[in-house]
């Protein structure tokens, strides 16, 4: 099981707010954040631009809300995956996180939404950047926690390598059109864990 790290409470949205966020999420992921304007989002959500701005304040804040929602979906997906796979050891949890990538990517043909967003949002002070950075730090922290539970030595170094494998699979799937990247990363992670020294 994952080490418990609670997300901040989800903001309660009005029905119009939910439609806006759902429309923005679909459009941002499918077409790219910068190419989608607020007019298209308002039209897809069947609201006025005034309603969009009243609810979210700006497109930048809507982008942050989209990524926060996607982060919650990722956490819920992993919880479901681990409940189904029932990993027996911390090592199995780590490998399950890699094995889960294959199913996630079946529904995420454009790759990792966080990586995609980080490329489009160059400004380090963009409201969405803490969400993007936080999601990647959470993955690394999970690898650290499971490595510690497993009794591995040099857990920070191990977590760094696992994160590079995990994120590399996401990038290779999208940029290099390597459809089997999650499976390659899973095997590489297994080899890494099998050879890593223990305390």
What proportion of the residues is helical, as a percent range? over 70%
Distance between the termini: 22 Å
Tell me the overall shape.
elongated
Q: Number of helical segments?
A: 9
* H/E topology pattern: HHHHHHHHH
DSSP E strands, number = 0
Q: Brief description of this entry?
A:
This protein is mainly α and 199 residues long.
Give the secondary structure arrangement, pairings included:
Elements: H1 15-31, H2 38-45, H3 49-56, H4 59-85, H5 90-106, H6 113-120, H7 129-150, H8 155-175, H9 181-195
Helix pairs in contact: 1-2, 1-4, 4-5, 4-7, 5-7, 5-9, 6-7, 7-8, 8-9
Which descriptors would you attach to this protein?
199 residues; mainly alpha; 72% helix; 0% strand; HTH_TetR; Tet_transcr_reg_TetR-rel_C_sf; transcription; TetR/AcrR family transcriptional regulator
Describe the structure.
- It is a single chain.
- By secondary structure, this protein is mainly alpha-helical.
- The chain has 9 helices and no strands.
- The radius of gyration is 18 Å and the shape is elongated.
- The two termini are 22 Å apart.
- The model has no long low-confidence stretch (mean pLDDT 92).
